[in-house]
Amino acid sequence: MGRLWAILALIVVSQAQAGPTVVDDLGNKISLQQPAKRIISLAPHLTEIVYALGGDEQMTATVAWSDFPEEAKALPVVASNNKINYELLMAYQPDLVLAWLSGNGEGIIGRLKSLGLNVYVNKPRHLQDIPDTLEKLGVLLGREAEAKRATGEFQAALSELSRQYGQSTEVDVYYQIWQAPLMTFGGSHLVSDVLTLCGGNNVFTQTAGLVPKLGVESVLAVDPDVIIIGQYTALETAYAYWRQWPELSAVKHGRIYNVDPYLLHRHTPRIVQGAKQLCEAIDQGRRPLP
């Protein structure tokens, strides 16, 4: 009996000492002995989420283009999205590495794991994946209260946008992310969710691929009510390009608008700011013609 009690006592102590544990987006369990103190992020949106959770002092190094908030620009850079300086990364002795499946790829993630690192893999596809990421990273960082607050604010902002625009008359939208070649987002991309939230219909939602390339004939054939330009550069070039086809409804009625891709294309709570821009642009496409 004494031996049994000793075993039970060991189990209780072991459970009491267990650190934070979550399951990442690939279904892998991540268990830490204690909340992460030395984090390396390998995607700009993951860097931003750590800061949104108040994990400033836990951030150790990051990836190129981690430019928000301003403090993130001062962090050491150990990688671009698909090229890692493994020697430098290991020198920082991270107790948690945050990776992005779409940006980093399975090869890099596998190599990181083979080095014995704790790797949380993020694979966001939909708006509701953002609060899920906040909550899981909140656990790993020991910042559950901050995650709960951020998640609540995010959900409230989405609910308000849905109330304002979600039940409005549907508008056919072509969302352009690049000019040459023409590129858009397919139905499985996060931005397609935002279009739906705004009462917009992604005219290429059935097109295969996350970021399909298009021929101009495809856009002419669907004749969208609104064209949204979500490019990082060459906005005027994009506007000028579509003016070549005045027969397009969006061109004929002057319904070509641009939005800030830095807000809309990152899987972070700031996407609600970009969603508001997008909803307002689409709503202009509902207004009666003069």
TrEMBL record:
InterPro entries xref list: ABC_Transporter_SBP, ABC_transptr_periplasmic_BD, Vit_B12_bind_prot
Domain Fe/B12 periplasmic-binding span(s) in chain numbering: 38-286
PROSITE patterns per record: FE_B12_PBP
Signal peptide location: 1-18
One record GO biological process: cellular response to iron ion
Domain of life, per lineage: Bacteria
Classification via CDD domains: BtuF
NCBIfam families (UniProt xref): TroA_like (NF038402)
Name of the protein in its database record: Cobalamin-binding protein
Native source organism of the sequence: Porticoccus litoralis
